Amino acid sequence: MRGPFESAVFPAVLSELARKTGLDVSELRRLTTRENLERQRDSKELAVRAMDWDDIFSAVAERFGVKLEMRAVEIARQHAGPPDSAILEDADQHLKQLASWQRAIVVATKGLGKYQLPVLDALGLTPLFTDILTPDVNNALKNDLAFYGRWPASTRLQISVGDHYEDDVVAPKQFGFKAIWKVGTPDEEASELLANVKSSAQLRKLDPFERPLNFQYAQRQTVRPDAIIFSLRELREVVERLESQ
């Protein structure tokens, strides 16, 4: 899904910060993003605080001696539905196709529940999931086994599906999951990792389980996913093939 942060939360909060500090919005975006990343990398930082954008915005504001009136959580709730939030690629229909008595379909997101749950509810996605995992459930990020709580178990096949290499491939593989990596989405992670349009076109012709062997990885990417998909249309077949192995 696409949430309201890019179209509503960041523009509103950063505009207020710009008015009060005299700094450019792009510079403030850089500072808030860096604060978020530094918190995530700090092993001593609480996971909940690392992903709390209201706290992040306030911390940046305090450096310049100003106080924010707008709150990200309130803006996110106000814009939880369309047009600022949307279901992408008919994801709801693909989730319904995956539904089975033998499967638990679990949301695993780094976004805090107070930001994510209103969007899931507004878009009608919440009933399609067995459980919802956010950093505030077990006070952990996705690179920590504690994040997954009771779900990892040696008696079950665990499959991670996502478009973020570190969170959805590296961490899950470390914890014994199978990993389906969705690439080709217009986010910075996918843009960085797809070498060029030509390689993308060539990969699309290959079987999802052959793509990991032919992907042009960055030097730092030493962990391989079990399958690579470009569209959620491919997901059900890949999941079923993993289950049959």
Task: Write the SSE topology.
Layout: H1 5-21, H2 25-41, H3 47-50, H4 53-63, H5 72-78, H6 91-98, E1 106-108, H7 113-122, E2 131-133, H8 135-138, E3 159-162, H9 165-174, E4 178-182, H10 188-193, H11 197-204, H12 211-214, E5 227-229, H13 235-244
Parallel strand pairs: 1-2, 3-4, 4-5
Helix pairs in contact: 1-5, 2-4, 5-7
Q: What distance separates the N and C termini? A: 30 Å
Helix content: 40-55%
- What percentage of the residues does DSSP assign to strands (E)? 5-15%
CATH superfamily of the largest domain: HAD superfamily/HAD-like
How many whole angstroms does the radius of gyration measure?
19 Å
**Count of separate DSSP helical elements:** 13
Structural class: mainly alpha
CATH class category name of the largest domain: Alpha Beta
Total domains = 2
Q: H/E element string?
A: HHHHHHEHEHEHEHHHEH
Number of strands: 5
Judging from the principal axes of the Cα atoms, what is the shape? globular
What low-confidence regions span 5 or more consecutive residues with pLDDT below 50?
Answer: 186-191
Architecture overview:
This protein has two domains: 5-78; 91-244, HAD superfamily/HAD-like (Rossmann fold, 3-Layer(aba) Sandwich). 47% of the residues lie in helices and 7% in strands. It contains 13 helices and five strands. The strands form two sheets. Strands 3-4-5 form a three-stranded parallel β-sheet, with helices on both faces. 27% of the residues are buried.
